[in-house]
Every structure is written in C-alpha cells, then in structure tokens.
Amino acid sequence: MNEAQDLFSLLRQSTDVDSQAIDAIKRTIAEGEDRELCRINAPAFASKHGLDEERTISAFLHAARVGIFDISWNVLCPGCGGVLDTNATLKTLQKDEYTCALCAEGYSPTLDEMVEVTFTVSPRMRRIAAHNPHELPLMEYFRQIYWASGVDLPDEDFVKKMEAFSLADIELAPGEKAVLPIQLPSEFIIVFEPVTHSAQFIDVKGEPTKERRSLSLVFDRDHVQNQTLEMQPGPLRISLENRTDTRVLPAVFIAGQALHDILGKRRPFLTAKRLLTNQTFRDLYRTDTLDINQRLKITSLTFLFTDLRGSTALYERVGDLSAFDLVRAHFQVLHEIVAAEAGAVVKTIGDAVMATFATPDRAIAAALRMRDAMRALNDKSGREDLLLKIGVHAGPCIAVSMNERQDYFGQTVNIASRVQNLANAQAIFATRAVVDDNLTADLLHRNALTPVPHEVSLRGIEREIAVYTIP
Predict the structure, then answer these.
(1) pLDDT per 10-residue tile (average), the chain, 471 residues
(2) Can you list the domains of the chain with their CATH numbers?
(3) pTM > 0.85: yes or no
C-alpha cells in the first residue's frame, strides 16, 4: 500500500495530469472489480466517470509511465472483435498478416481499427485474476482476455447471455484428452478454442438422425482452422486432445442471433493510430514506440504542415534576438493548439511544423485556431511579423522510426507538405479528402466558412488534385 501511495504521489506531481481522472483511477483500483482493472478502455472509462476523454487518456499514459498500469497493444479481428495477438510494446508487432479462426478471415494489421491500446493494473498496485489468465473461468477468459475492449459486453447477465448460445464447454490441461457428448441442433455450430484461436465449423442440416457420430479435434499451435463439416441433427461425440503446453478451453457455440447480438454491440476504444497522434504519448514515449525495421500501415491519418512566410526577411527586419523570440513564441502557441485538438507535433524543421491528427476535423480546428493566434500575436506587436502558411491533407501512410523518433512516410505526407507550400498567410489550404469529411464540413459550416476549390499541379504528382482555400 505504501508503494501505491508513493506512485500516486509521483503521478500527481505531473502538472498536466487531470486530478479528477487521477481520483477516478485511484478509486477504481481500490474498489473496482477485478475485471474492471483488466485491459481498461480509456475512452469508455472517461465516459463512465464523466471525464474529459483526452485528459483521461493522458492520465492513463502518465500512470503507466510511473508503474501504475501496464500498457497492452492488442491486434484485433475487425469482424468478431477478438484479440488475435497481444504485445507489451508496439515494437513487437511484426507479423504481416493475422488470421481469425472464428471469422475464418485473414487480415493485414493497420493501426486504425485493428490495434487497440489498453491499460491493466500493475501487480505492484493490486493483484487481479487476469494476471494469471490461464486460471480464469471460461466465461471470464472470453470477457477479459479474448474479446477486445471495443466489444460492449454486458455488465449484468453476461454469463446468462453467453449460455444462450453455448451448447457445451470443457477445460483441458496440457496433454489431457476428453470426450464431449452433445446433441446437434439444426444450426450452424462452431467448436471454438480461444487460447489457441482454433475453430471447427459444423453446418448442421437435413433430417435428424439417432446415429451417434464421432469427431476428433486436436489443439496445437499449428492447425487452427479446419474445413467446414456437414452433419445431420442428432448425437455427436467429440474427442478432444490438448497438445499444447497450457490449458485450453474448447466451447461449442450456436452461430445464431444470440452470438451476433453479443458481438454486434461496439463502443469506441483507444486505437494505436489515435495514441500515436497524442502529444502526451509522444512526449513520454519518444524513443520507445517503433522498431527501426517496422513499417506499420495506417489507413487514414491527417497531416498539418505550417511554415512562416518571409522568416528570413523577419530576421533582417527586426534583428536576430527579437526574431528568435517571436519564432519561439509562435512554436509554443502551435504546440499548445495541436495538443488541445488531440494532435501531436511530429517534428519541426526550421520554422516549419509537421503535426498529425486522427481525424481531419481536428486538424482544421487546429488550423483555424493557429490562424487566429498568429493574428493576435501580430496585433499585440503592431506588425505583421508572423505570417503563417498552413496546409492540410489526409490519407494512407506508413508509421516508421527515423532518427530515433516515430515518423511517417508516404505520398500523403508529400502532398500535405506541398499543399502547405501553396498557401499564403491569409488562407488555409486543404485537400478534398479533408473538406469532404462530414465532421470537417460541419465545423466549417458552424464558422460560416465556404471552401473555394481549384485544381492545382504539385511537384512529383502526376495528376492535378483539388485543393480548397479556406478563407
């Protein structure tokens, strides 16, 4: 308990951590059920406790940094929401493709919706059942370990709702064999094992029979998917063998409406993409994100580039010292605005800033605030010293590690940079991918701003693209 108090005292010393979020975290660790402290969904936690989402995510990151939580990077199946792989750091996510046996689909991982980031209380703070997942009862293994935090599982009657589509289940120790007798209904049946992610599909149809059939299933790490079998309704004897070095939990499910109802309820969760665009994360984990050989795909990320127009003339006009103070003040303002709009500054190059946002609307909101802030700084000085050019573009990219920091690579980055070069100090330039976003359109409408389109040619881009001036 003394160590826990020391860690929370250390956490409270971080001036940018929300005290209400800290109080909610401390209360949950002290009073919450074990399952509430396993793979915590930070956005859902914020919603439950009436907290600001971004400040809550920041609090969890700081808490993990001091040792209160362990961070987990989980690769998800976008179909069923199952966790296909778990990593203590993003650096160990190295596979090019993952297969979900339950959905019988293969997926190339992207950081958008296929990698979630969760927080589990450290054993130093409190021991919970999920610290020994292979001792969890089957239903709790599914709830706490197999399904991702984005699957909105019911708090009440969870076991009852699982039993609605479960025909049978059994636990097998390493090397153990068993026989599971069941009565096959006229349904599509799945024999699913969540530890090895193994599945056997049985399409049950036709006339019922009293003949007892037999099915043998072996659980190991190499054979996780078998061909679908067709059987008639009636008795079935399933012989099971565990050839792994850990226990397995085979269960027989009816793939009907009750199962789909459980899997169909989803909620927002903290994606890897969103965390990589979080300024607190970049500040705390600057050199501990990606391995130098990793190339992780992001389906869509929004890039904002800024640059000061005429900065060389500024140094000539007001002198090096005054110009340096102005440029430093401009950088501080931009960093604050990016963080406030849930973005992150990737790097600064000379007088330019490269920032990322999870969604286009947050980038445009930041751009509008930046323009207003520069006008305020100019009004304060009585001169038009800070003339900021802003360009915004969204699209696919690859997250990489360059010069010991997390960076991005791809055509989207190149286009965003060149769109910024088109801008002048009175307007923000954005591409169609940005202004066509529904949330961006709502934001511009609320601010009575109408983007003006024009076709432009960009160096290195074969086709003309539509660029919009935001006046």
Answers:
(1) 83 88 96 97 98 96 96 94 92 85 88 94 96 95 96 92 95 97 96 94 96 94 79 97 96 95 94 94 80 83 89 62 75 95 93 95 98 87 78 95 84 94 87 97 97 88 88 90
(2) 1-146+265-288 (no CATH), 165-254 (no CATH), 289-468 (3.30.70.1230)
(3) yes
